[in-house]
Structures are given as structure tokens and as C-alpha cells.
Amino acid sequence: MRLPGLRPAVPTMFRSCFAALGAVCLLATPAWAEELAGPFQAEVLRIIDGDTFVGRVHVWLGLFQTTRVRLRGFNAPELPGAAGTAARDRLAAVIGGGNVWLSGVRPDKYGGRVDAFVRLSTGEDVIPLLKE
Q1: What is the CATH number of the domain that holds 87?
Q2: Which helix (H) or strand (E) holds 23?
Q3: pTM as predicted
């Protein structure tokens, strides 16, 4: 039986807990959101498009992580399309099948991949080579 004028406590408790959880989520900075300076060596496994590839990244002694890597500071035309295909082929010609170095690694804004500055094993920055 409910007394007149009294509301059940459960919805109020639920709202309070939900608000507290929301505040914690907004204030907490997840560890994965920070930028990792590197350098990290990566083997190029596959070219996805003109600014993204799949790499096997050496993260620690004997530990590797396979992830999608987007070239930070570069935007290539999207697939499908002739310009997108040409951009993908150019990236494949520059880094395909080789080893590269990643630095300034951070999560991509869309998730599922990382953004990084990419250099060839010779030390050359990849982006100027793509613009030639």
C-alpha cells in the first residue's frame, strides 16, 4: 500500500546513480585516449585505402598487435572511385610489404583504428612521398 504524497524511492535512486555514473564517465580520461610517442616498428600487412593500412605493430618484447593505422595529417580520396584506387595503389607502392615506424600514436576519432605519423625504415616521412 502506498501512502498519499510519497513517491517510490527506486526511480529517485536510479536517477541519482545514473547521474553519478554519467559524471564519472565524463570526467574520467581513459588510458587508451592518450598519445603514445613511439616509435613503434610495424610490418605492413595490407593496404586498405589511400590513407589506411593494416599493420602488425611490435609493442613490447615478443608482443605484437595487429591494427588498422591511418596516416595522421593526410586525407586521401575515398574508395570506390578512380582517385581512391590511385591513392590506394600509391600507398601500396610506397609502403606495401615493408616495415615502417609509427610515432604520435593515438586513437582515431571513429574508433577501430589508430592515427599515427608514419616513416619508412629509412627514416623518410611517408606523406611527402605520397604527394609526389
Answers
A1: 2.40.50.90
A2: helix 9-27
A3: 0.71
